[in-house]
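Practice problem: Phage head-tail adaptor, putative, SPP1 family
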Amino acid sequence: MIDRKKAAEKVRWTPNVRVDVYAKGNKTNELMETKHEFTKVDSMWAKVIPQTGKLQNQQTETVLANVSHKVEVRYQAGKNITREMYLMCRGERFDIKYILNPYMKNEFLEIFCQQIIK
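Answer key — structure tokens:
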């Protein structure tokens, strides 16, 4: 017989999307100038959970949607992620606001992100 707690934990962690991690790097062009640009550094499975959202009216009748998400990844896969990076998921950019390690268990990381839709 399967233990209920173990079965519930398996259901709780079901990664459903592939997330790409981008970090800022230096690139030198043919004129020996250093250019700073974001490059893909990693890709991992994650669970993306919408948290909150709000609409803001901008000038010239533009509406700005500000949506926050929680992205859960396994600790070993995401332990090198920092706030200076951003995530791409299904063509959408998610800027990292802060990263939590729940109960310091080193099992999962909760990455709180902000997605701005114009």
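Discussion: The two ends are 51 Å apart (CA to CA). Students who identified this feature from the tokens alone can consider the problem solved.
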